[in-house]
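Running co-folding for manganese (II) ion.
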Amino acid sequence: MEVTANRNEKSSPTSSRALRDWVNEVAALTKPDAVVWCDGSEAEKKRFTAQAVDAGILIELNQKKRPGCYLHRSDPNDVARTEQLTFVCTPNKIDAGPTNNWSDPTETYAKLHGMLDGSMRGRTMYVVPYVMGPLGSPLSKVGVELTDSLYVVLNMRIMTRMGQAALDQLGDSADFNRGIHCTLDLNPDRRLICHFPQDNMIISVGSGYGGNALLSKKCFALRIASVLGRDEGWLAEHMLILGLQSPEGETTYIAAAFPSACGKTNLAMLTPPAEFQGWKVTTVGDDIAWMRVGPDGRLWAVNPENGYFGVAPGTSAKSNLNAMKMVEHDTIFTNVAMTPDGDVWWEGMDVPPPDGLLDWQGRRWKKESGEKAAHPNSRFTTPMRNNSAWSPQADDPRGVPISAVIFGGRRASTVPLVLESIDWTHGVFMGATMGSETTAAAAGAVGVLRRDPMAMLPFCGYNMGDYFAHWLKMRGAIKNPPRIFMVNWFRKGADGNFIWPGYGENMRVLKWMLDRIHGRAKGRATPVGIVPDETELDLNGLDLPQSATREALAVNPAEWKAELESAAEFFEKIGPTMPKELKDRRQAILKSLNGEAPTQRVAAGR
Ligand code: OXD
Ligand code: MN
């Protein structure tokens, strides 16, 4: 539905007066040539895609090989989330906490107002209404993004339930997240991603990159939603959700938090090893979980998204067969390399690069150059339903009941393959002290260890100490809490190689968790948590020397003392909001490591 800005009021397709007024207000400020309300239809998709191809925003790929697939090359200075330019603008600085950049809301609104004034002249402003979560679910929320980027519109169409369905869900309500996205001139000096949780508002300028520009994802579903969760008594988490189906047909749901680019998408759609006949992993979500306590006292989760915005490099038939298949059609690729016959290529695809490859910037690529052909943070945007492991439960308005929560990171040492917490507080402690070596998903140095509590460091929209307190408080509401585990697929041996093969073999670890949940595995208590007894891991068919298994599961007291030392430093950085309960737990674990207290197994009531 195309309408001009001044005709907008009369012909807008919403009965929400608040939405109409806000769209008019933003249009009056940004002064676009036209305002287009997106309806989410197929016809609209076709029209937008053709326009994007004409404008050079999308390159049509070989439609015989990859029907419905397109390539986008972003500005080379705009290829990842920019955490240093991301702000939480709460009235009081303490509410943003020590781990967020803060700026004063009044000043920031004024500054952004100046930047937005006339910023869409000569351009179109698209109104993108969307629902996060299954349609009609009490766990879902409506957002509206106003953007001048057709690339954003086409991605939002994949990533969310977008269009008329969202306006229908909104009805005449004024309760929706307001997101304004303006590309400006992509000058990094004029790039700002600002969150105003008190107004349920996001304003992002100067970037077209996914995490900065698809406001539904990190900005709304995590930063703003985490604040809504705190205030309304639920959890908005950077977690995948998978269903683990046994040969008997029983499905257990697991939510798992990993920092960016640690294989979340791979785990969410894992293909079990051949020995696991009859076992199946189904995907509810690969990045975000919204979790509430259900009437049965369990934690119920929905995936607010409708698609995957996955990292391409490293995705191969071996690492993620389902992903390789799902990107064969109806996918937007961003910053991957292009083959001479209009197909895509990236490092780690396990296919040799063909001659005549164009790199992510469209330049002739030469292997000898030593440069990557695909950008390390190049992506695919794919509808959820393209995934053959997709779980229809992803559309269930009730969500799915969570039996286990996993915290994981990329750690070369210290953290064993899997560790179970002895109770909720210990699980929260594990999440709060999670660390990972940095990857290319965010701008900055790669390979440096940073604490990334619950994988939420860049995504928690409020004070991290208060966030830990919220997790601790949730225990009171959850009668039947999920078990909490920590995993590390990335531990390295003395030779510098990964000990554990990872990918589909991670199924063996999931199975042990299931055995723990159903009381079939005893585990071995250590001062830092419960690890599998070597005999409990199902290693059938896996060529792994026993010494490697032992090394993967080892808890080295000296390493853990150093770990707890570093955790204490991190807790100090959190400052006065850091819950005492977690500091005390750290002390208790240290005592146990020093042999001054007995090793705890499982506390009463977990
Ligand atoms: C993502 C991220 O894009 O975490 O999912 O960076
Ligand atoms: Mn993510």
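Result summary
The chain is about 30% helix and 20% strand.
The first helix runs from residue 8 to 11.
Job closed.
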